[in-house]
Design a protein that fits this description.
The protein is built from eight helices and 19 strands. With 406 residues, it is α+β, with helices and mostly antiparallel strands. The strands form three sheets. The protein has a 13-stranded mixed beta sheet with strand order 10-9-8-7-6-2-1-11-12-19-18-15-16. Helix 2 (51-60) packs parallel to helix 4 (127-134). The termini are far apart. One zinc ion binds next to loops.
């Protein structure tokens, strides 16, 4: 038999690989949590803040990554936004002379490009320009995204190209098409992408059964900070959490499909008043576990479900070891927390026992020992504190971990 490589050369090669491996291990950072919002609007679509104002809002409040997700557009190319007089009617005054003056004062005259013909207008900063101003390695990152809109809304994260909306016959088929296109965008570009189905109860557009039909694992918004999205459901409609539990029960049980992740987002549109009835920033976000702050690393972790969702509750650690799911909660002065472990036991018919509270504790760390017959278990932590930016439902601060399949 012909020898491909001599013994001495092989030993040297193994030695080199080993040395390389050791060196890489030594330089590999420990994973940590990164705070970010994946659902944000600006003047590029129907938000009322200029993109630099929005990036500044998040960065200055300790967020580490941000996805500008305007409806059906990326923040690229030359776009001029008309400037209204300060006393213009409400709907027309997203960009007024006073707001332009504020941008000039905050970011400098060089950063604000204006023209008078054919009408007074300001050129919108592109994502590249916003990145150049705000990104800092290991501190703040912008990830390119889009809210593909119509009739369902799906956010694509770390996109390379704009994805055009197109109704594909049904809500489920359209959602699947958008999820597939986001995935295809990543495959074509050779980089990870992630997607989430947004505010399923907005206009009651998405039925719980729509979530059953989608292929592969996917994420949806269990919490969206916009005041019109009906997170809590009503007498005729399931809450987003009930939808989540039903989807998990039937997908992981009878249907043999993949899991569903839950994200919390702002869906922020309004940056000039704090009002529960406005879509203001600061209500819902995710904490992503990753070794470094890059678009590819953060996006891959989101796609893998390596994150928790929160409206204020902070977790130091979420771990599954042996048969225990454990949450270490970082409580603040005077704060009390209650952790509920929700899940469905494998005998459920999809009607009874769906998303039951299997165990409740106020201990910290909160621990759940698996019985062995759960289809999944997820944790929800509820704080005694209200949201820092109150929402339309008067929600308490919460955190949601991703479902664990034992
Ligand atoms: Zn939307
Ligand atoms: Zn939105």
């Amino acid at each position: 038999m012909r020898r491909i490589i001599g013994a001495a050369a092989l030993a040297a090669l193994i030695g080199a690989c080993y040395a390389l491996g050791v060196a890489q291990d030594a330089g590999r950072a420990e994973p940590r949590w990164w705070k970010g919002n994946t659902h944000t609007h600006t003047l590029w679509s129907d938000g009322n803040g200029a993109p630099e104002l929005v990036a500044d809002w998040y960065k200055s409040r300790g967020y580490e990554f941000l996805v500008l997700s305007d409806h059906n557009t990326l923040s690229v190319g030359e776009r001029w936004f008309p400037i209204a007089e300060d006393d213009a009617q409400e709907g027309d005054r997203r960009l007024t002379r006073a707001r332009v003056a504020e941008l000039v004062e905050r970011f400098g005259a060089d950063a604000v490009e204006l023209r008078d013909e054919p009408e007074p207008a300001m050129r919108l900063a592109t994502l590249d320009e916003v990145r150049a101003r705000f990104e800092e390695p290991g501190r703040f990152l912008m990830i390119q995204g889009e809210e593909i809109t119509g009739p369902v809304h799906v956010n694509g994260i770390n996109l390379s190209e704009r994805i055009a909306p197109e109704f594909d016959g049904s809500i489920a088929a359209t959602t699947q098409e958008y999820l597939d296109r986001v995935k295809a965008d990543g495959e074509a570009a050779g980089r990870p992408t992630a997607a989430h189905l947004n505010h399923p109860n907005y206009a009651w557009a998405v039925e719980p059964t729509d979530l059953l039909q989608l292929e592969g694992s996917f994420a949806f918004e269990v919490y969206n900070g916009h005041p019109s999205v009906n997170n809590a459901g009503n007498a005729e409609h399931a809450s987003t959490e009930q939808m989540w539990d039903l989807a998990l029960t039937l997908r992981l049980g009878a249907l043999g499909r993949e899991t569903v992740f839950g994200v919390a987002t702002d869906d922020s549109h309004h940056y000039f008043r704090e009002d529960p009835r406005a879509a203001t920033p600061g209500r819902g976000w995710i904490m992503v576990r990753a070794t470094e702050l890059t678009a590819d690393t953060i996006t891959a972790a989101i796609a893998n479900g390596d994150f928790y969702s929160t409206t204020g509750v902070e977790l130091e650690d979420v771990s599954v070891e042996d048969d225990v799911l454990a949450l270490h909660i970082r409580t603040r002065e005077g704060e009390e927390v209650t952790t509920e472990f929700l899940g469905t036991l494998s005998g459920s018919d999809g009607v009874d026992g769906v998303g039951d509270v299997l165990f409740t504790t106020s201990a910290n760390p909160a621990r759940y020992t698996f019985r062995g017959d759960e289809l999944y278990v997820r944790a929800r932590v509820t704080s005694s504190l209200p949201l820092a930016v109150p929402d339309a439902d008067g929600s308490p601060q919460r955190a949601w971990t991703q479902p664990v399949v034992p």
